[in-house]
Amino acid sequence: MPQGRGSFIWTFYVTLVVSLGTTALSNALECYACSYLDGYSDMRCLNNASALKPINCTKKYCLTVRQEAI
Q: What is the top-level taxon of the source organism (predicted)?
């Protein structure tokens, strides 16, 4: 284990790396994928979207698309 000034620099470096890593993880988007077919699907998409598991999103933005059949 480093001592003296080296110990301070080591502690600062480790704290910085952990802080940056935590910030990067906490800024990740929570994106959701959901589909519903009338009478054939789970209705959680319509009734309680927050109950759905988020998907891994590595992008900076999410895009919402709604497609309806006529």
A: Eukaryota
